[in-house]
Amino acid sequence: MPAGGHIVADFIGYAAADRIATITLDRPDRRNAQNQQLLEELNDAWERAAADDAVRVILLRAEGPHFSAGHDISPEEVARGPFRQIAASIPTRGLLGIHQWEARHYLGFSRRWRDIPKPSIAAVQGACIAGGLLLAWPCDLIVAADDARFSDPVVLMGIGGVEYHGHTWELGARKAKEMLFTARPIDAQEAERRGMVNRVVPRTELDTAARALAAEIAQMHPHALAMAKRAVNQTLDIQGQAAALQSCFDIHQLGHASAYAQGGQFVLTDLPGMKGKD
């Protein structure tokens, strides 16, 4: 996407005004689950905001009652999506195909969004499950609705956590283990107490509160904002975050190897924290 303007792709909305780029997940009929097209469009929107000198703050939000149900692993999406081609190539290529695809679309995109030198805010409502964390955690700040809940239930699928393994950094070691071991969601209030969420607001005030925070930050000097963000991110990297994310991503690939060794991927359509299609 070129810089500036207003764009609506199939699954992503983009608008830039008043120094704020608003990126909207717009696949509410699938609870904003992520297929390849959504991820590519989302990355294009992030890159557009990064390249626009008029944009000082990036706001990521979602249409519908849920922020994101994670990766779209519905049987129909798996059947027609990239995993079908990857699975077909396993006898000749091993697991290299899935490793390369996930390295780009999951870990790679999330790390790229984290390091864009502009402040970013995620406005999260409803369910933020597994792959949904890969969208929220790279943002610098999170404003959560009081109905928000965060979970990573992929241990139930035979895999030890999602591809961007920020759990320990976001929650601390013991709470991260509880999140993974039990698959139970963490509500917005506990996420705020743990420091994963900056503030919790009533659901009806989420967009207003997130935009007000973005507008406040947008008044600051853009170079100072970039340097402040870089200072914090580099501190985390010096503490080992970047290396840990890569190491845990490689561990994640062992889960795929185990699943294929047992005859195929585990696929769940009803995850903890998500009931029906509301």
UniProtKB/TrEMBL annotation:
What are the recorded GO MF terms, alphabetically?
catalytic activity
Superkingdom of the organism of origin:
Bacteria
| Biological process according to GO | fatty acid beta-oxidation
Q: Which InterPro entries match?
A: ClpP/crotonase-like_dom_sf, Enoyl-CoA_hydra/iso
Q: Which Pfam families match?
A: ECH_1 (PF00378)
Q: Do you know which NCBIfam families this protein is assigned to? A: PRK08290.1 (NF006140)
What is the name of this protein? Enoyl-CoA hydratase/isomerase
Originating organism = Rhizorhabdus wittichii (strain DSM 6014 / CCUG 31198 / JCM 15750 / NBRC 105917 / EY 4224 / RW1)
Q: What is the lineage of its organism?
A: Bacteria, Pseudomonadati, Pseudomonadota, Alphaproteobacteria, Sphingomonadales
